[in-house]
């Protein structure tokens, strides 16, 4: 049943993004920003962790999870180190994913020729 709920929740997040594109005519940058901020707000309110527990990968794979990770890391480090922890916590939790994206993007750029 976990696969079903992961599919439904992940699909709903994607549908929300698609509605932002099609109905509200938002740019990809605006849509991305709104979804990241929505994930951050949900985590700040304590609602994103129960969503992850319920939907698993359906809540951790979409871009809303990045906002969740930023706030979650900042809040954890703030408890340990105060205001400095807010800044360092965001980078500590998300640095591996961002680094991987940069490295794999560079490898892809070196291997493949753009069609532009």
Automatic annotation (TrEMBL):
<dbReference type="InterPro" id="IPR014204">
    <property type="entry name" value="Spore_V_AE"/>
</dbReference>
<dbReference type="Pfam" id="PF03862">
    <property type="entry name" value="SpoVAC_SpoVAEB"/>
</dbReference>
<feature type="transmembrane region" description="Helical">
    <location>
        <begin position="6"/>
        <end position="24"/>
    </location>
</feature>
<feature type="transmembrane region" description="Helical">
    <location>
        <begin position="83"/>
        <end position="112"/>
    </location>
</feature>
<dbReference type="InterPro" id="IPR005562">
    <property type="entry name" value="SpoVA"/>
</dbReference>
<keyword id="KW-0472">Membrane</keyword>
<protein>
    <submittedName>
        <fullName>Stage V sporulation protein AE</fullName>
    </submittedName>
</protein>
<keyword id="KW-1133">Transmembrane helix</keyword>
<keyword id="KW-0812">Transmembrane</keyword>
